[in-house]
Amino acid sequence: MNRAAKIGIAGIGLLAAAAVLFFAYDRGMIRFNHPSLEDYPIQGIDVSHHQGDIDWQRLAAQPKVRFAIIKATEGGDFRDRKFAENWRRAAEAGIVRGAYHFFTFCRPGRDQAQNVLATVPREPGTLPVAVDIEFHGNCDKVPTVEELANEINAFMDELKTVFPEKPIFYVTQPFYEQYFKGREGLYPDHHLWLRSIAEEPVEEACRPWTIWQFADNGMLDGIEGPVDLNVLCRSDTAFSDLFSIAVR
């Protein structure tokens, strides 16, 4: 067998191995992090219309689904088509709920806040509004730190007229390093929801992060296909320190 043929066979083998690994990861058979209930007693999910029809009663029976953060809005006019149903049915199942907004860099912050106010009901016993701030799935604009801070502040100035609680800001680790680390004072006071799939982030007494998204390929009874998995800071065992709400 000549050298070119050997290289070709090796390449095919690598591609096949990569395909197997991707299939296993996509089906939740491979995960980098496995935080236990003993270490992180409050665990939950975040969902959107991508999860399709969710059986909330089946989810509620599982100890790793104590809370759910549900997509409500995106930008200045998009509203998740499953939000109202998910919001209602999660409450009926007794799961602690929160709503999240995907913040786009191509619409003014005040316009986006109006979209949230028109979509998310003000109800007792819910988590603070979460704001997803990341590059993935966003428009092509790359804001400066000052531009982002100005729009986030404008967003929160509008939002706090109805939702005065300290918000939750969802960021990836690279986004946090680029825009937030060492610059927290530029932004409204907030809880940090940190995405870190590859490793467990450093945490000291719920600082710097409050919620850790540790997987995007979780498999749970009640949801067909993958779902994002999260844990609350291990220092908080009943939401009380962070959100001041009653839980089941």
Strand order of the largest sheet: 1-2-4-5-6-7-8-9
Order of helices and strands: HEHEEHEHEHEHEEEH
Give the strand content.
15-25%
Counting H and I runs of at least 4 residues, what is the number of helices?
7
**DSSP helix fraction:** 25-40%
Broad shape: globular
User: Compute the gyration radius: what is it?
Assistant: 20 Å
Distance between the termini: 66 Å
Average pLDDT, rounded to a whole number, is 87
- Residue windows where pLDDT falls under 50 for at least 5 positions: 13-29
Largest sheet: 8 strands, mixed, barrel
User: How does the helix and strand content classify structurally?
Assistant: alpha/beta
The beta-strand count equals 9
